[in-house]
Every structure is written in structure tokens, then in C-alpha cells.
Specification:
The complex is a heterodimer of chains A (267) and B (298). By secondary structure, chain A is mostly helical. Chain A is globular and about 70 Å long. Chain A has helices at residues 3-41, 47-50, 54-59, 69-78, 80-91, 95-103, 105-110, 116-148, 157-183, 188-211, 229-233, 243-262. Chain B has 298 residues and is an alpha/beta fold. Chain B folds into two domains: 3-219, 3-Layer(aba) Sandwich (Rossmann fold), CATH 3.40.50; 223-282, Alpha-Beta Plaits, CATH 3.30.70. Chain B is built from eleven helices and 14 strands. In chain B, strands 6-7-8-3-9-10 form a six-stranded mixed sheet, sandwiched between helices. The mean pLDDT of chain B is 86. Classes of the chains: A mainly alpha (267), B alpha/beta (298). The interface between A and B is medium-sized, with 22 and 28 residues.
Chain lengths: 267, 298
């Protein structure tokens, strides 16, 4: 891995990282604050909130209980805003590869004594740092909420560590797939479009598979199938399921290194 | 004399299109070689193959005596490059771009200050983000980054694009100094006068193949445009042919013609005639260019 490229990329991404971390902090704290009225003030027991209809559960990636803090954390993790924030964190740095090819700056970089594989590894590392930063921001926010919002303190620290590690694994895999796409593209817009399409398709397959019995077998095609926050929190799901996205990420990285090392740099 | 660049039977195909078809040439140490050809001839493709940006379909390339396939990153420590069409990082300052590229080169940019001074890049200029730079300013950054680590070999594709005449002249001086110091240069340019001014040799490319190599000697001894003016009352003595002359045309009292090679016989023939004035101007590389590419190029 080339340290100069890594430092350069991190400097370029620092503002984006700060914005994404701030957004994650604000959104998670807002959702967990909103949960307090259900967790501490409610004296009712509405089945709809404890066990929402199947379609809603499908949208949140599995079973969900709004009368417990876990349910609100799952809501926060599966909300489109969080998906957008984490996806942006996963795609921002990989898009640099195709941007550099499109802009022509890659000619300056690769005509220096630098191996293409070390360039890809630098991009990958910077991207994983960005994904880690946003997840640490979410974890820190949840730990802060646990101390400051009544009802949320029921969340166990070990459960939180498991759930954020699970989410990190999914978005790390997304990031590595984005590196593969960008390493084979000469157009930034195409690379970003394909990577976003991959995330959206993966999300929709999971939702459709959970909603429709006929499509249930397709759920394994989605990255999001391998991480169901609710099950991770109540320990009914093993983190071993995350091996699949881990392997997908590793294969994507290997393919990115090999294909970028062999490709012609043309605009 | 060792070769800084050795290209043997280089072929580059893009699916069905052959961009470079069996190109062979070399650049000796301490030599500036011009690389000429019309648009689409394969110049940029060759240069990108030399730098490992494109993978040759076949053929071999050696830079500074080292096969490219064996040690590209190592050999690139000794190479400076100015791409034909390039971008810079818009959010970086000029100094930021030079710092980044300097660190990537693994060598101290010991010539940067002198180069910035030569090309009139002030600290204020270098402190501005490059997105506010003009084309010429960006080109100056490209030149400085190519030379700042004092490379042994410089490979350039249209390096004077956007430069004003003063800066062009300074750039050509820089090339000459690089040559005198033992450095080697491959210079691809559309501006023939520049190539002509500094090159020891010119390699001419057409449709992906080398069609001619012109040495310094040939450049000097190339076609000359001549005009012999005869005395007013001696127009009847004006000959229709002269030794070695071609494209002969009579314009009033003046006989215009082209000549190539040794002029001894011509001068001797003219001395026997009532010639009152004789002008001989070297043809430009442009003439050679048109000679190779035919009148269609005009």
C-alpha cells in the first residue's frame, strides 16, 4: 500500500468524512431521542408497535419491536437516511479511481514509481477508514444515548458492538465492490451509478424476499440478508453469517487489484 | 552509446483497431528525439505504452536498459513525464500538486525552486487552487513536476500546449540543458519548429508505423528553397534547368527552384551566369512532413 496516496486520499476525504459522521451522529441521536416517548412514557401495549405488519418488517430487514430500545436502533440502522449515509461513506473514496482516470490525473500518479496494486490498496484502506469512521460515530452516538436517554440504557454494550460490527462488515463489502467497479471504469458517473445500483438492488431483493413467499429463496442473493440487526441484538443470529459478505468483499478486492493491474488506462 | 529508450516491434491493438503496428526506434542517452505524426498516427499510444499506462499487444520496450515488463516502478524513478491531455487535482494548490507528485517520485524535488523561478510561478501562484489556473499555468505545473526530481529520461506529449512564446523558448532551453547534462528526451509535438529546433533526430509515424527517421544531419542537409535573380537585360540567359534543381519556376527576372544536398555543382553553374542575387533558405521540417504525407496534408 502506498502511504503517500493514502494520506492524499484521506486529506481529500476529510470534509466528507466529517459531514457524514456529523450526519450519522445527529440522525442516530434524533431517532433514539424519539424512542424515549415510547419506551418510558407509554403505558399502552399496542400489538402493531410490538409486532408490525410483515411489509414493515421487510422494509426494516426483519422483526422489529417499537416498544423496546432494540427496535428503535434497528429502525435507525435500516432507515433510508442511514443507508444513504453509510453508502456515501462506502462509495466516496472508491469513486476516486474512476475520477482520476476521467480527469487524467491518474497519468501523473501511475507514471511515478508506484505499483497499481499498492494504489488500489491505498484507496481500499482510505475507504474502509471512512466506513469505520461513520460506524464509530453511530456507535459513539448510541453509547451516548444509552447514558443520556431514558429507556435506551437497556441496550447492552456487547449487543451494540456486535450490531455495529455487522453493519460495518456489510458496508465494508459494499465499499470493496465499489472499488472493483471503479477500478474498471473510466467514468465517475458510471462507476458511482453502478455501485449505488448494486446497493439498491441488494436492498430491494432482501425486502422483496422477506415480503413475498415466492421470492424468499432469493434472499441469499442480497448482502443485507446476512445482517439482520434485530436478530444480532437478541443473539438469535450468529455473526458467522457475516462470513459471506466478508468473502464477497475479499473476492471483490482481489478482482480489483488484478483487473486494475492489467487494464489499459484510457479515457 | 547506451539507449535510454529501446522499442522493438511494438504493437498495440484495441479490439479490431491497430493503433501501433510494429513500431521500432530508440533514443540514445543524451539525445532529444522528436516524435512526429498526424493526429491518430499512434504517438500518444506509443508514449502511454512506454510508461506502462497501456499494455502492449506485442513487442518489447526497454527504458534505461531495463525491460519494462521486469521493473516498471523502479525505472520510473528516473523518468519524468508530461502527458498530452491531463488534469490536476482542482482542490489542491499548485504547490500541493507539486508536493504530492514529488513525494510519489521517491526523490527530493531539488530543482523545483529554480524551475518555478524560470517559468515565473510565484509563491502567490503556487498558493492558489489549480482550478483557478489558466491552461498555460497548468502546463507550467506539468513541466515543473516532470523535471523537479531531475530525471534521467523525460517523455513528453505536446509539452508546450498553452505556453506563451517566451515560456516556450525557456522550455526549449530547459530541454537543451537537460540534453547537455546527459539526459534523454522523447518529444512528441505538433509544433514542428520546436521539434526541429531541439531534436537530434526525428522519428516520423504514420498510421501506426514508423515511416522515416531523420537524423540531425538530414535535418540540416534537407531541401532548400532557392531564388536566383538575373540581370534585367539577361533574361534570355536564364536556364530552364540547373544541377540538382527541381520544382523550377520562372517569376520575372527570378528563377525559383528547390534543391537538396551538396550545392557545389549548383553554385558553380550559377557563377557562369549573369546572376545578381541568390537566396537559399532551408526548408522547414514541415516540408519533410508534407513530402511524407503527400499533398493531401496541405
Amino acid at each position: 500500500m502506498n502511504g503517500t496516496v493514502l494520506t492524499h486520499l484521506l486529506r481529500q476525504a476529510v470534509r466528507t468524512a466529517a459531514a457524514l459522521c456529523a450526519g450519522t451522529f445527529a440522525f442516530f441521536y434524533l431517532v433514539l431521542t424519539a424512542s424515549s416517548s415510547f419506551l418510558s412514557e407509554a403505558t399502552f401495549d399496542i400489538p402493531f408497535l410490538r409486532d408490525p405488519p410483515r411489509a414493515m418488517q421487510a422494509l426494516f430487514g426483519g422483526s422489529i419491536d417499537f416498544l423496546h430500545a432494540e427496535g428503535w436502533l434497528v429502525t435507525a440502522l435500516a432507515h433510508p437516511i442511514t443507508l444513504a449515509l453509510f453508502t456515501a461513506a462506502a462509495l466516496t473514496v472508491p469513486a476516486v479511481i474512476s475520477t482520476e482516470v476521467e480527469r487524467g490525473t491518474i497519468d501523473f500518479v501511475l507514471s511515478r514509481p508506484i505499483r497499481r496494486s499498492s494504489y488500489i490498496l491505498a484507496v481500499t484502506t482510505a475507504s474502509l477508514i471512512l466506513v469505520t469512521a461513520t460506524h464509530l460515530s453511530a456507535l459513539f452516538t448510541t453509547l451516548l444515548a444509552r447514558q443520556t436517554i431514558s429507556g435506551v440504557h437497556d441496550l447492552s454494550v456487547s449487543g451494540l458492538l456486535r450490531v455495529f460490527f455487522g453493519s460495518w462488515t456489510i458496508f465494508a463489502a459494499v465499499s470493496l465492490v465499489a472499488v472493483l467497479i471503479s477500478a474498471n471504469s473510466s467514468l465517475r458517473s458510471r462507476a458511482v451509478g453502478l455501485a449505488v445500483g448494486f446497493v439498491v438492488l441488494s436492498f430491494l431483493i432482501n425486502v422483496a424476499a422477506l415480503m413475498l413467499d415466492q421470492l424468499f429463496p432469493l434472499r441469499r442473493l442480497s448482502l443485507f440478508h446476512y445482517f439482520q440487526a434485530a436478530k444480532v441484538l437478541d443473539s438469535s443470529s450468529r455473526l458467522g453469517d457475516l462470513i459471506v459478505p466478508g468473502v464477497i468483499g475479499a473476492i471483490a478486492l482481489l478482482a480489483a487489484v488484478l483487473s486494475f493491474s492489467r487494464r489499459d488506462i484510457v479515457r | 552509446m547506451s539507449s535510454a529508450i529501446e522499442v522493438q516491434q511494438l504493437v498495440k491493438r484495441y479490439r479490431r483497431i491497430t493503433a501501433v503496428d510494429g513500431v521500432s526506434f530508440n533514443v540514445n542517452s543524451g539525445e532529444i528525439v522528436g516524435y512526429l505524426g498526424p493526429n491518430g498516427a499512434g504517438k500518444t499510444t506509443t508514449i502511454r505504452c512506454l510508461l506502462g499506462l497501456l499494455r502492449p499487444s506485442s513487442g518489447s520496450i526497454r527504458l534505461l536498459g531495463m525491460p519494462l515488463s521486469d521493473g516498471l516502478p523502479r525505472v520510473l524513478e528516473e523518468v519524468g513525464h508530461i502527458p498530452g491531455e491531463f488534469g490536476l487535482w482542482p482542490q489542491l494548490t499548485g504547490a500541493g500538486c507539486l508536493d504530492y507528485l514529488g513525494r510519489l517520485a521517491h526523490r527530493r524535488p531539488r530543482r523545483r525552486a529554480a524551475l518555478c523561478e524560470r517559468f515565473e510561478l510565484s509563491q502567490t501562484d503556487l498558493g492558489r487552487q489549480v482550478r483557478y489556473y489558466s491552461r498555460g499555468m497548468r502546463q507550467k505545473i506539468a513541466i515543473v513536476q516532470a523535471f523537479q526530481h531531475d530525471p534521467e529520461l523525460v517523455i513528453m506529449d505536446e509539452p508546450t500546449e498553452g505556453l506563451d512564446p517566451v515560456m516556450k523558448e525557456r522550455f526549449l532551453q530547459l530541454l537543451d540543458e537537460h540534453r547537455v547534462a546527459g539526459g534523454s528526451t522523447l518529444l512528441s509535438s505538433h509544433i514542428l519548429s520546436e521539434v526541429e529546433q531541439v531534436s537530434n533526430r526525428v522519428v516520423v509515424l504514420r498510421a501506426g508505423t514508423v515511416v522515416r527517421e531523420i537524423s540531425r544531419h538530414d535535418l540540416v542537409a534537407r531541401i532548400r528553397h532557392c531564388a536566383a535573380t538575373f540581370a534585367t537585360d539577361a533574361s534570355s540567359a536564364m536556364p530552364t534547368t540547373l544541377p540538382g534543381a527541381f520544382n523550377v519556376a520562372r517569376v520575372g527576372d527570378t528563377l525559383r527552384f528547390d534543391h537538396r544536398g551538396d550545392m557545389t555543382a549548383l553554385i558553380s553553374a550559377l557563377s557562369d551566369l549573369p546572376v545578381v542575387d541568390f537566396v537559399s533558405e532551408p526548408g522547414s521540417l514541415l516540408d519533410v512532413f508534407f513530402e511524407i504525407y503527400g499533398t493531401d496534408s496541405r
